[in-house]
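TA notes, week 10

Several of you asked for a full example with nothing omitted. So below is the full record: structure tokens for the whole chain, then the designed sequence directly under it. When grading your own attempts, check the secondary structure regions first.
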């Protein structure tokens, strides 16, 4: 999948990618609004400039949950990978995978993002 800029102009293309990934799924699905919600939440949590966000990668599993061993299998949910490149968030990948995770957001920060976050903390 080619990374797609997340915007209203690309909404149809992104929804097509989502449907392609979820074609046989009945539960734990996502939509375009869920991706926008995740981006807003990430931006609030990071609280750094666009320049500092360059290269940040976030893997999102909105339906992450822990299931007991007695559940007889681990259900799948739709996951997506966001990358901040060129001043915009991009959808790099979308797939179905096990939802047996502790965290909803897994973030890989670039060195500039780490420095910006530390600088924000020191200003506090």
């Amino acid at each position: 999948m080619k990374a797609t800029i997340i915007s209203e102009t690309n909404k149809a293309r992104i929804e097509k990618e989502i449907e392609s990934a979820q074609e046989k799924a009945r539960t734990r699905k996502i939509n375009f609004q869920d991706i926008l919600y995740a981006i807003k939440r990430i931006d609030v949590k990071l609280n750094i400039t666009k320049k500092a966000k360059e290269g940040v990668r976030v893997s999102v599993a909105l339906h992450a949950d822990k299931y007991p061993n007695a559940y007889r299998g681990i259900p799948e949910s739709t996951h997506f990978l966001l990358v901040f490149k060129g001043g915009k968030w991009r959808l790099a990948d979308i797939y179905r995978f096990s939802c047996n995770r502790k965290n909803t957001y897994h973030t890989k920060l670039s060195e500039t993002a780490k420095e910006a976050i530390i600088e924000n903390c020191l200003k506090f």
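Helices lie at 11-21, 32-46, 50-53, 111-123. Use that as a sanity check on your answer.
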